[in-house]
């Protein structure tokens, strides 16, 4: 199914479509993703020059995604940006303007949407990206720092607390500014910054990613299918579908993906994870906390 036919975000459509592109067309895709979305609004000539290809190659790339021409591609990009930046109140107004869904109860409707969103999340996930994420989190000498946004911070803490049970050197990003400055200042090559960033993307989170890259740390990003701006500089990107029965983006698929990462990390660490959990249990009993 082409991007023009499928109801998937543009950035994700470009990522998926790269496998079917010619080498020259893949150059166009990489430029678009590295400077998304601004590169998509350049002229055909400018985009071709940035990618080091011909103008017809850019047009063939747009055709490959299912668009009749470059103006059609750019209009789809504008529509995608409207969706990408939608606020909860905009989603609420849009949902209440839709026709009645019929006789299905709210519970049945929520169950259906949740199942579909979970299936799309895991169906679209690139196995090599998942594998790379696990490798980063299990690297024995790395330090892992985990942070998120207003709501996704809950998931960041969930991941950090589980990783702390199975390996040393894991910390949650402090809430206060001074603590964040110190944590980022300590990052070095080989360390990993894990960030959660979802639409209405947070500029402070992007700055954290940039600072980590400047220190040659790796960045692992959990984001939505519209892809946070951080995706252009992240080493690994794990997107989730966020469709929900309400005006708020669903975090259930993100939690399911986080749990899958935790499970695979536990398997990968093996005896080291078991020894770590036993040590944590002993420390808890010594302090009379368990």
Automatic annotation (TrEMBL):
<dbReference type="InterPro" id="IPR035472">
    <property type="entry name" value="RpiR-like_SIS"/>
</dbReference>
<dbReference type="Pfam" id="PF01418">
    <property type="entry name" value="HTH_6"/>
</dbReference>
<dbReference type="InterPro" id="IPR046348">
    <property type="entry name" value="SIS_dom_sf"/>
</dbReference>
<dbReference type="InterPro" id="IPR001347">
    <property type="entry name" value="SIS_dom"/>
</dbReference>
<dbReference type="InterPro" id="IPR000281">
    <property type="entry name" value="HTH_RpiR"/>
</dbReference>
<feature type="domain" description="HTH rpiR-type">
    <location>
        <begin position="8"/>
        <end position="84"/>
    </location>
</feature>
<dbReference type="InterPro" id="IPR047640">
    <property type="entry name" value="RpiR-like"/>
</dbReference>
<keyword id="KW-0804">Transcription</keyword>
<keyword id="KW-0238">DNA-binding</keyword>
<feature type="domain" description="SIS">
    <location>
        <begin position="133"/>
        <end position="271"/>
    </location>
</feature>
<dbReference type="InterPro" id="IPR009057">
    <property type="entry name" value="Homeodomain-like_sf"/>
</dbReference>
<protein>
    <submittedName>
        <fullName>MurR/RpiR family transcriptional regulator</fullName>
    </submittedName>
</protein>
<dbReference type="Pfam" id="PF01380">
    <property type="entry name" value="SIS"/>
</dbReference>
<keyword id="KW-0805">Transcription regulation</keyword>
<dbReference type="InterPro" id="IPR036388">
    <property type="entry name" value="WH-like_DNA-bd_sf"/>
</dbReference>
């Amino acid at each position: 199914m082409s991007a023009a036919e499928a109801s998937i975000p543009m950035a994700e459509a470009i990522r998926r479509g790269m496998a079917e592109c010619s080498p020259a067309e893949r150059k166009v895709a990489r430029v678009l993703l590295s400077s998304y979305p601004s590169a998509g609004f350049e002229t055909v000539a400018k985009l071709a020059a940035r990618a080091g290809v011909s103008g017809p190659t850019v047009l063939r790339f747009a055709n490959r995604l299912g668009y009749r021409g470059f103006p059609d591609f750019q209009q789809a990009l504008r529509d995608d940006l409207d969706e990408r930046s939608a606020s909860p109140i905009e989603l609420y107004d849009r949902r209440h303007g839709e026709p009645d869904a019929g006789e299905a109860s709210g519970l049945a409707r929520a169950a259906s949407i949740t199942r579909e969103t979970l299936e799309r999340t895991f169906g679209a996930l690139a196995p090599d990206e998942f594998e790379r994420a696990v490798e980063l989190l299990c690297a024995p000498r790395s330090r892992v720092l985990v942070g998120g946004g207003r709501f996704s911070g809950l998931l960041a803490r969930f991941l950090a607390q589980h990783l702390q049970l199975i390996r040393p050197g894991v910390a949650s990003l402090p809430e206060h500014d001074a603590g964040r400055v110190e944590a980022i200042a300590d990052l070095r090559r080989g360390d990993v910054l894990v960030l959660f960033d979802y639409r209405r993307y947070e500029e402070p989170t992007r700055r954290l990613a940039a600072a980590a890259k400047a220190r040659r740390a790796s960045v692992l990003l959990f984001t939505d299918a519209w892809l946070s701006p951080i995706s252009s500089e992240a080493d690994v990107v794990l997107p989730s579908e966020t469709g929900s029965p309400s005006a708020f983006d669903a975090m259930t698929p993100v939690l399911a993906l986080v749990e899958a990462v935790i499970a695979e990390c536990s398997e990968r660490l093996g005896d080291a994870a078991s020894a770590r959990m036993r040590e944590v249990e002993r420390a808890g009993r010594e302090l009379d906390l368990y």
